[in-house]
Design a protein that fits this description.
six-stranded mixed β-sheet; alpha+beta; about 100 residues; elongated; 6 strands; single chain
């Protein structure tokens, strides 16, 4: 009886720990990074890289993310995945965003 109770309790604990994880997933197959929104403009967002993700940009680098949206505001931290194509301008520009989400 005690074994059955422990097995059921273990299963309930596993569901409680792993089953309710609602953290938004980002695309890790493509290049990605986390940036803090510095300004909103007609093209999208100017962000400062705060986490280089899989090494596509350096921390502190400013990047223009060309996504026509007003979903985010200044000082939001956002995770940006893109197809790897970057316009070599100052600041670098990303146009082909595959996923963009707010970091919790």
């Amino acid at each position: 009886m005690k074994k059955i109770f422990l097995v059921i309790l273990s299963i309930i604990c596993c569901f409680a720990l792993f089953g309710c994880n609602k953290e938004e997933q980002h695309d890790i197959l493509n290049p990605y990074f986390t940036g803090k929104v510095l300004e909103l403009n007609e093209k999208g967002y100017l962000v400062e890289v705060v986490d280089s993700g899989n090494g596509c940009f350096s921390v502190g680098e400013k990047v223009q993310v060309n996504v026509p949206s007003t979903k985010f505001s200044v000082d939001d931290k956002i995770i940006i995945s893109f197809d790897g194509k970057v316009a070599l301008s100052i600041p670098p520009q990303i146009s082909s965003v595959t996923n963009i989400s707010k970091q919790n």
